[in-house]
Amino acid sequence: MITHSVIITSDKVVVDGQTLPHKEQGSAMLTELYRSHVGDYPKFFKMDTLCKVGFLASELLLNAEGDRNFEPREDRAVILFNRSSSLQADTHYQSTIQEADNFYPSPAAFVYTLPNIVTGEIAIRNKFMGETSFMVIEDYDEQTIMQNLANAFQDPVTESVISGWCDCMDEEHFEAKLFLNNKLSNR
Amino acid sequence: MIVCVAHNITSPLGMTSAENYSAVKAGLSKLRQYDGLWGLPEPFVASLIEREAFTDNRHTIVEQMAIHSVSKALENAGIDTTSEKVIFIISTTKGNVFLLDKREQGFPQERVRLGMMARQITEYFGNPNEPIVVSNACISGVCAQIEAMRYLEGGGYDAAVVVGVDVQSAFIVSGFQSLKALSPEQCKPFDANRRGLNLGDAAATVIYIRKDKVAENEWVACRGAIRNDANHISGPSRTGEGSYRALKATLGDIDPATIAFINAHGTATPYNDEMESVAIERAGLSSIPVNSLKGYYGHTMGAAGVLETVISMQAIDDNNILGTRGFDTLGVTHPLDITSCNRTTAKRAFIKLLSGFGGCNAALLMAKGGLQ
Amino acid sequence: MDELIYTLKKQIIEALNLEDMTPEDIDENAALFGEGLGLDSIDALELIVMMEKNYGIKLKDPAQGKEIFKSVAVMADFISKNRTK
Lengths: 187, 372, 85
Prior knowledge:
- The structure holds three protein chains of three kinds.
- By secondary structure, chain A is α/β, with parallel strands linked by helices.
- Chain A has one domain (about 1-185): Thiolase/Chalcone synthase (Peroxisomal Thiolase, Chain A, domain 1), CATH 3.40.47.
- Chain A contains six helices and seven strands, in the order βββααβαααβαββ.
- In chain A, α1 runs parallel beside α2 (about 50-65).
- Chain A is globular and about 60 Å long.
- The N and C termini of chain A lie close together (about 10 Å).
- Chain B is of the alpha/beta class.
- Chain B is built from nine helices and 16 strands.
- β5 of chain A pairs antiparallel with β5 of chain B, so a sheet runs across the interface.
């Protein structure tokens, strides 16, 4: 059963159905959200846009759940989907190697050229040692995401899952729809 | 139970599973140094496939290798891919990423999206379902198999075609060079003198079905688990947290004495191999032989989990535990029984272990004839 | 040297996305790694790229970074002696 939900798009933030007020849009909105709702995690500024969006959505989701203790746990999984994989990070890294006379491959850019890094960032922040997984489908499909979620509970250790959609086309265009799902009430 | 009905490996060592296994058994590798390839300023050692062998100009090299691998696997599988009861699960990390290079012409930009790449494969085989791409860094190949097991257990599908593929490019090689992760020579997994990893091209396929009764010679995907280190996005955990937990969850109450070997990730980077030694010891499995196939193929990324599972199944079919090419002197702090050359075994099960960027780790238990 | 130190601080902040920091926040004699700024191994590799890009210094062995990145002052000293651009 879904216990909490968060939607972040380039110009809209919704937590459990309530619109969250903000002044900025796009990338500036992400920084604004970080400053007003997180504030103590400077690693945020090193992240690519996909990670920033997924990280912020998970922060809002877990704040909505409340009682955050950051103790290691293995019973919570993070399983996300999207369409563009790590395209924004890929394009950024490609720009560091495109010209032969300005060829300086950036290690800090390269480490973000995998979509599952966002699931890792969420796991690191919260000490989630359970399953993390990232899947890519060409079109958003709620049924695939829900089927996958049900399948994820086949792992007997998994009691809850942060699941949903986390897509980023470029630095200004993104869309996250994250849900916190609980196993017990799922049955 | 989830049973493997067919498989294939398409790699520099051969175009069929059998060709690949006999090459590996004989200790062969196509790892060699490339100097100036793709305009890269620094040389690198890799296992690359002859691009000229793939001549279909409607599909990229990545798509062609995947299509070839699936076609070969389907030859004797008795699976109708046009059925909506068959799902394709594709494992890749970078797919057609080379299309981002402005000098690349001939394919539409949208093919850089993994879902579009995957559709080329399902459309080729007339499959009506939307393909799912598992993109979980280096553990993708095991995750895709776990995903297939869950889909089949969950009902709704009769067969799952799992194909892992990655092809090297300037993008990937320069990235690993920037991380100083590449070995200047052929890699040496678990060795005291290991200096990093080599990269490799490959596609590999396994086809799974669900069955109530399993014959003695059929391979069963018994159990798998994915766990995170929750430590660092690129550095392995010093306590082997995720790999240890994945191993523990996968092994369950199985007697470790029934396991012939652990086929480790064994990339030959200093930190990965050390981490695996910690994890294997913590899981109480240090007496089980451990091998790595990276000395034969390099790190084939999204293909690795599938390719290494297929080679390991064939090794057991041949009563063999493969040696770890490149390994000579133990170079990890927790003592492991790394196989330096081939050994015979009568055991019928193995564990495939992987770890990757994003702190993810995965393990898969495969048993011939199922668990006793 | 003071000018180089100031420029270097700005370049480090930019290369490592230390968004919340200003050059004034960085003590040029304090350790860059470890406690200090909370930098990791990827940051060290990124600093190597930054030195190559801005000062034409190519480190043969990344392990050299350990000595050079002790502090901004040590880094500035190394750059002033080895720069090719």
